[in-house]
């Protein structure tokens, strides 16, 4: 019996090679059988999944649900969000180069629209969006091989009613593909995502919804970090003097470019455009993040205090693009000394 199966498989491969057909199905199945299968650990921003310590690739199963809901955009302002896993931004995903990622997208039965996921970490048509499009109550599934390390955006790309509406309403997140050797250890890792909201009153009293007119005019009412004005103004981001911090920063736009800056800090390293293995700039004050782009910044906090995270297109601070990194510990007067007049 085994001999017959082997003979048949050999014939299929030979015919495929003769016809010039791809052998993706055969080789990927064989490879997947050799790899362990694990469930992805997903985190809500600003939390980041733990660094990957395994030495080999795995089949990583990612489960995400599209959910439409009403939530708070700013103090006293409610908005009709579309989301992944009920949060804006969606959950952060972390995998490793060489992993086979199997993505399951469920579309909640109570939703009104079809949804999908276009992952910028995918080498394939539509970033997988066409393969996992799901109507309300349905599930879309596809898999991809993680080929390149870096920090990537994912977002919904459903054509109904249009792609910009899904992005502008909150359907986006970050996927980190670690290099095989991992990133250098740091004391803290945080994830931040900037986004714009274009609003108008909906038919539901006291609830705002997307204004396509404002979106086309590129005049946002709100520019925020992590989906809400004030989302990072508490104790979400902390460190101690002398510790190192790595921030994974994304900007979905959907229109604007972000000028990411931390007041009172200089980035020791900037992984330009979120690429790992590419250009790493040093001693950077402000870094540009294009729409649907990312960056990774690393720095050591030398003295305690409150450090403001901003988009230095500075009027956006008034629209919500501000957060705080709270640093505790002993002051170092050799680095910074407040000399008050007598």
3D architecture notes:
There is one protein chain. The chain is mainly beta. The protein has 2 domains: 36-178, Cupredoxins -  blue copper proteins (Immunoglobulin-like); 188-328, Cupredoxins -  blue copper proteins (Immunoglobulin-like, Sandwich), CATH 2.60.40. The chain contains 4 helices and 22 strands. Strands 1, 2, 3, 5, 7, 11 and 12 form a 7-stranded mixed sheet that branches. Strand 2 and strand 3 (77-84) form a beta hairpin.
Mean pLDDT, as a whole number? 91
List segments where confidence is low: pLDDT < 50 over at least 5 consecutive residues. Answer: 1-31
Strand content: 35-45%
What is the level-2 CATH architecture name of the largest domain?
Answer: Sandwich
Q: Helix amount, in percent?
A: 10-25%
State the helix count.
Answer: 4
Silhouette: globular
**Count of individual domains:** 2
What is the β-strand count? 22
The computed structural class is mainly beta
- CATH homolog superfamily of the largest domain: Cupredoxins -  blue copper proteins
Per CATH, the class of the largest domain reads Mainly Beta
Could you list some keywords that capture this structure?
Immunoglobulin-like, mainly beta, six-stranded mixed beta sheet, 2 domains, 342 residues
């Amino acid at each position: 019996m085994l001999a017959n199966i082997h003979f048949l498989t050999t014939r299929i491969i030979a015919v495929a090679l003769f016809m010039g057909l791809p052998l993706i199905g055969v080789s990927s199945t064989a490879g997947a059988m050799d790899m362990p299968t694990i469930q992805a650990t997903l985190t809500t921003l600003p939390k980041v999944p733990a660094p990957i310590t395994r030495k080999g690739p795995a089949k990583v199963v990612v489960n995400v649900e599209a959910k439409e809901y009403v939530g708070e955009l700013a103090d006293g302002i409610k908005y009709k969000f579309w989301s992944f896993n009920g949060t804006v931004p969606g959950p952060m995903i972390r995998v490793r180069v060489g992993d086979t990622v199997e993505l399951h997208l469920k579309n909640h039965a109570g939703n009104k629209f079809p949804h999908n996921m276009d992952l910028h970490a995918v080498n394939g048509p539509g970033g997988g969006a066409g393969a996992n499009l799901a109507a309300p109550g349905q599930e879309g599934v596809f898999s991809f091989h993680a080929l390149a390390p870096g920090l990537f955006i994912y977002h919904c790309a459903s054509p109904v009613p249009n792609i910009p509406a899904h992005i502008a309403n909150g359907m986006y997140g970050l996927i980190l593909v670690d290099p095989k050797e991992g990133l250098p250890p740091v004391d803290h890792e945080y994830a931040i995502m900037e986004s714009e909201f274009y609003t108008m009153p909906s038919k539901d009293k006291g609830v705002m919804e997307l204004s396509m007119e404002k979106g086309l005019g590129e005049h946002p009412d709100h520019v925020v970090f992590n989906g809400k004005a004030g989302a990072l103004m508490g104790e979400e981001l902390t460190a101690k003097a002398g510790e190192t911090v790595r921030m994974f920063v994304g900007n979905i736009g959907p229109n604007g470019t972000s000028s990411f800056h931390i007041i009172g800090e200089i980035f020791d390293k900037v992984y330009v455009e979120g690429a790992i293995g590419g250009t790493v700039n040093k001693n950077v004050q402000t870094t540009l993040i294009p729409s649907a782009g990312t960056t990774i910044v690393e720095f050591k906090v030398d003295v305690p205090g409150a450090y403001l995270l901003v988009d230095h297109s500075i009027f956006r601070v008034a629209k919500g693009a501000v957060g705080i990194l709270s640093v505790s510990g002993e002051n170092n007067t050799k680095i910074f000394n407040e000399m008050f007049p007598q």
